[in-house]
Amino acid sequence: MQSATSPPSYPPSSAVFDIYFLQAQICAELTQRDIRHCCLVSKDFYHNLSPFLYRSIHIHRSSTFKKLIRPESLAALERNREHVLHVSSVYARIWKYLVQCRCFHLVVLQSPSLPRRPQNRETNKQELPHILTLMQSCPQLRVLELGHFNYEKEKVNQFCTVIRAHRQLREVKIDHYDHVRSHIVQTILWSMLRIERFSINVYTSDYRQRQDSVKESKELIALTGVENPIFALKELALPCKMYDHELALLFPFMPRCPHIERFTMPFICASRATRDLIVLLAKFAPHLQHLDMRTCGASGLDVALAIAACQNLRTFKAGPATPPESKEIFDALMRHQDTLEELNVEGCFAISSAQLHGFLSQLPKLQVLEAMSPYSKISKIMEVSTREKLGDPILSMDDLRAETRRPWICHQLRVLKLRYAGREKLENTGNHDDDDEDDEDDDDDEDDDDLDDDTHSKRYHINRKRKKKKPEEDGAEEVFPSVLLEQLTRLTELEVLWLGRIERYFLVVDPIAIADRIASGDNADTTTMGSPSIITSATDLNAVVQRENRRAIRHQALTQNMGYALAEMSKLHHLRQLELRNLRPFIKRADIRQAKKNWKHLKKLNYS
Q: What confidence tens digit (pLDDT) does each residue in 366-379 have?
């Protein structure tokens, strides 16, 4: 008889699961909103996950600050102090409470100031000692951003001492625009031996030229504690204003920063000094790939030299300070067409429409193109009065139609922000173009009196053909040009799309032109000034009705064109942000709802 087989016995497992470690790993991948939703599941979920809500604290309102400094809130903050990793507050008084609650596990400390409230910055400046205490007590701190700073010599020395003693700090940013002596900036620079990213925004105010002696150089080297210091800086941002003789503070510093990859040029009051700095970058920054010249007022040739100083340029940023000589800049950028990935030309009106199209059709690795600011820099009234498109560069449909054989080849483009000028002409009550044509016809008639019949007939047929071409213009009834839409549908990887429409013809007439017409004895149409005209007869009433009917028909056609454009843009399935400016009158909510069905990842939609 066979004995029953007993199940095999396994040795007891020695693996121990740390439930707190698992919780930390799970919550590390969750956002604050997800954690709040999990806390609503049950009491156990709330008990286990609520401490992770203290991981990131953002205080940008006075009401939030008042809630945090309550006794019960401070007690909860002290209980969960080990989970506090990231704190950002515009009220620097919070830092003394963090010291009292012993929140010494900070990784990111951000203390910005309100830009439009100078008193907030002056109040925050007095809390710098508490920030220094936190820096000394937080050994894991890696990011420090200050929107306020005390540039007194004693305070600067204390700050630099703490920076040099910290082992984990890698990023420092000081954004307090104030008049500072250049030797103060030099002391701060030479204290950043282990820092990888550094930014300071000041206005150096040494009006007299100073010579750097050998003694000063030895003192600066002694600050680092190393005989031959080599700085670990990979990103250096100096969006400040300097005089030409103050640039000497960078000459002994830049040769010791061979790892720089990102550099923000300062505004220097002399072109010769700017060129000296560019030569310094070309010689001692072989890894420079990201160049920011938004605050630099250099000439077009100097900007082109700075671009040429980069070996493999990947990012270039220009701004309103960019000179109008953009031909050299465009040619210099095209030499990096195999590596350029990000291009920012917000407010750079020197960039032409053809150059914008050239960027999109000749840069295959381009991923970000920002050519439209987040707010309108120039009002519409100023655009009307000057008849110029100021501010951001504008993509013209005329240039785009001329280059239809060159499609946009940047298929990896993720961010696109630009303004375009269409060719549509909205119906206007005071249409002066027709008046000009009538005047031209009258002049022709006067001249034709002296011509024979054959010449007169030829002139008549030529003028008739010229008038027939106008209503048959391609895209004359398109508020969203089909040429632009065809190019956009090729960019299937788009995630952020901002488009701003610029009208070719404005509905408001220049007041100066109206005054000239009145002075010359002509009757200015009051409808051009926004007030209704006086109807004196049935003929005038019929003309008004016909004009309104034409306007309604045209508006309906433009609305249908915009609906078709939204239907085509709904094929961009990766879209996360969409902003349409000056297009609201032609957008239907039904078209928006239909397009949003295909935008599964859309988080922000604005149209005005």
A: 999 999 888 655 55
243 CB-side CA count, 13 A:
13
pLDDT digits (tens, 9 = 90+) for 209-238: 555 566 677 888 888 888 889 999 999 999
pTM recorded for the entire structure = 0.77
**Strand 262-264 and strand 290-292: pairing?**
parallel
DSSP labels for 486-513? HHHTT-TT--EEEEEEE-SS-SS--HHH
Given a contact cutoff of 8 angstroms between Cβ atoms, the answer to whether 239 and 266 are in contact is: yes
The span from the CA of 254 to the CA of 186, in Å, is: 12
Contact assessment for residue 344 and residue 350, using Cβ atoms and an 8 Å cutoff: no
Helix%, strand%, coil% for the chain, nearest 5? 45, 15, 40
Distance CA 478, CA 583 (A): 12
pLDDT at residue 522 tops 60? no
Nearest CA among 91, 159, 94 for reference residue 121: 91
47, two tokens: 């008990």
List CB contacts of 20: < 8 A, sequence separation 6 or more. none
Spatial separation of the C-alpha atoms in residues 46 and 590, rounded to whole Å: 41
Counting Cβ atoms within 10 Å, is residue 24 exposed (0-12), middle (13-18) or buried (19+)? middle
